[in-house]
Thiosulfate sulfurtransferase/rhodanese-like domain-containing protein 2 (Erinaceus europaeus), 522 residues
Amino acid sequence: MPSSVAPDQGEDLEPSALRFSDLDLKDSRRINPTSRLKAELDVSTKKKFSFAKKKAFALFVKTKEFTEAPLQCKEKRWKCCQQLFRDQTGIHRHVAARHADEVCHHTACILKQLSVSTLDSLKSADERNPLKEPLTHDRDVSAWLPDISCFNPDELKSEQGGDGGEVLLYYCYCDLDDPNWICAWQTALCQHLHLTGKVRIATEGINGTVGGSTLATRLYVEAMLSFPVFKDCLCKDDFKTSKGGAHCFPELRVGVFEEIVPMGVSPSKISYKKPGIHLSPNEFHKEVKKFLSQTKHAQSDTILLDCRNFYESRIGRFEGCLAPDIRKFSYFPSYVDKNVELFREKRVLMYCTGGIRCERGSAYLKAKGVCKEVFQLKGGIHKYLEEFPAGFYKGKLFVFDERYALSYNSDIVSECSYCGAPWDQYKLCSTPRCRQLVLTCLACQGQGLTACCVVCQDKGRRPASCPTLNSFKEECECTARRPRIPDELSQPTQLPVSPEPRPDVEENGPCLRERFHKPSQS
């Protein structure tokens, strides 16, 4: 139901009552519905016409809205008919002049939904709305899908290179009685909105990253926020957005798992309900500033801990952090166990991409009972960079999709694996079946240096008919020589921040050797 306000009061409604407070709905001169539609309405429906046309106009304008990259502009822009509009008046005039027929069609759709004419009856209809009824799993999932009949099908699709797409990143820890039903609903919802991506569901909650058009992602967020299971534990700010689209993922994958993020420890043993203390980006920024100031004078009792994998922290990290040289988050518990004395009587500031790994990661560390305090960055690096793009996080933010990384600042903290030149753009190893990521600059790529290690580089030179090509393993030499669980306590001096491969020259040509960088003292 569009609103809980009587439609025949539409002439006197404030814009906020329509839930479109950011649009200038009062200027009815710009709304030019056809008189033919109104003439065909009965007396009771005509009373709802003003309400319906304003909402239809607002919805149409909303679909033309897009936000540029965070560093470029935080103000709203609208794009329609290959024109860019920087103010509401301009887009309103354009829509009124060029898209009256579409607005009229949307108005008719809204009028069909308004089957009552008084405030009391509208409230009763809201109570009958299936999205507000108790969740019953015998109900078909289609009853929980948003109505998209008012929209042009092309508006729900995003094309590669277009301006109208984005990627959503979110998670929600909550108890789910029937994750399989939620899985079926999520699959139907994403397909309904032409979204791609990955959604993990478990009895402990949901974790998703999906891409599509801005209209599709907006409808997805609205569906999530109105769904009975999630509406009390999710808010709009829990969804992190970045420029992208459906093309950022090869397909849609929705499944039920034991954990919504694979830490390798049963939720029954380490629960999300006992995490570290959440710090807002501003609070975390102050703590990092204090930590770096103390570190200069060797007085800090704090560890700034990166909970991500080594290839994530390699291209971007907080200054002075400890970034474990682990390949998977499922290695994190073993890392803590092996280095538990490192955290004794320490204050630990933890962070990850969006916050989800810190939820149970901090719970695991707290359960060891050795830390003074354990804190975690709420919303992760994603939310921190929205507020502090030039803060203490340097380099790019790694993401698990076809983009590989997001850029919020111009810092490059990693190097080409072959020549050592500043470089932070990942590519997959060129050797078939190897899934390692490699940093190789354009100059080295031009020389054919496109593999992750010498072994893979040699395999790549073999004839395609070589039978050994069919037996490649994902974990090649560069992984085999890296300890699965690093022992930080064995380091004689400062702890490594993250491994950065650096070339050496041997008799048989260039090879990759790992070098550990110490935390910055700046």
